[in-house]
Amino acid sequence: MGQVLVVTSGKGGVGKTTSTAALGAALAKNGKRVAVVDFDVGLRNLDLVMGAERRVVYDFINVASGQARLSQALIRDKRIETLYLLAASQTRDKDALTDDGVKRVIGELRKSFDWVICDSPAGIERGATLAMRHADVAAVVTNPEISSVRDSDRIIGLLDSKTCKAESGEEVDKHLLLTRYDPVRAGRGEMLSLEDVLDILSIPLLGIVPESEDVLRSSNFGLPVTLGSAGSAAANAYRDAARRLEGEDVPVTIPKEGTLLNKLFGRRAA
Amino acid sequence: MSETTQQPYTFRFHGRSFLALVLKPQMPTTEWLAEADKWIARSPGFFSGKPLVIDVTGLSLTKRDFEGLMSGLMIRDIRILGVEGADPSWLGTSLPPLLTRATPAPPSEDVKPACSPPPTSDTTPEPASMLIEGPVRSGQSILFPSGDVTVIGSVASGAEIVAGGSIHVYGALRGRAIAGFNENPDARIFCHRLEAELLAINGYYSTAEELEPQLRQRSVQAWLEHDAVKLATLA
Fold it and tell me: B225 with B158, same domain?
């Protein structure tokens, strides 16, 4: 039986979809069978980041409502053969997903994949609660900003109360994925420090992903950053995070100010 | 030959007790409503979804005053399910019914702590304190009317602890702490690190803006003195 990982945050624009694609590709590259599932019905994005937008025939809603079989809707990645995508529907809304439908689809995916990664929509409404419902593990994507941290805290509260695990007296294994970390701004004290974020959220750290143009560039080419800019610091951070998810003990590296130029600019503006 | 046994419809009812918040207006009621506005501004949504009773015992109200008070509450979206201490002739069909024989806050059965609820059975006496092992997250509301609440962890910004007795937080208190909820002026609030949005004891409150800056981030206790919330660092 595979594990279900929800990538969630509460706040929008913090990097859930990017992280889902990057972690999914990194895990699959290590030989795991991975399905990434887009729960953002009506505002789907994961197909774009995975470069599969032209290949979507059947989607999650079709499968959940019994109009299509799972095998018809799963799109195999062209670069990594153990990586699959279940796209969201762009023409429906979140009410089209039923509790029973989601339960059945996740149950089926769990049987044939090592990892089922659910890309949660922003917010705390139906889409987000359904995405986390069957999770065993959660990656709480957070930016080092106060609003993002507070929303993440709220999401952790929901993970501890509204999931199947929580309702059966168990606990979802929660991890912090700190994204869009800007070493220059961190050096100037313009962002919450890592210590502050860890103190407020008090969950273990899965990784720190630096703010990077590589992420944006890869996404625009329809590539998870772990494939598109495989040598970048962001890709390394996601690869390490994927290894930690697999239970490996990998020390966390805190992104440092990169070039001398960065440092000069950092000082001058401070 | 057909035989049909029709289940007779029965009209059934049960007794069930609920815990309600009791509002006690003071004269003049217009000023009291203005105070209510301040409270709502500081804790938006505090009253929404909570069962509320209004107690006008001992107030020299006329029927017109009372109707004004009720419509004032209605405008503020404070929905009242019952009235105590009013003249029965004031209450027409459009107003909530008169309640009598109330008992002060019985131990609540439907208190749902976010984490590790102390297991209670019918045979054991109601616990006088609640222990929460772990943080209280933003958006969570802990309501424990029958005694003290102790949190081993932090209370997040946007979280709320409401206790009949005192509140102890062995972590950072960043949310709202409302102690002495059942008219208990002796209740206190203790926290390891004060970053609270609001502190209240027995209905008297103090907001983050009013806290002295030198108390921030410190270990602090709060108590009530002459109907005002006082704060001091813990040695």
Answer: yes
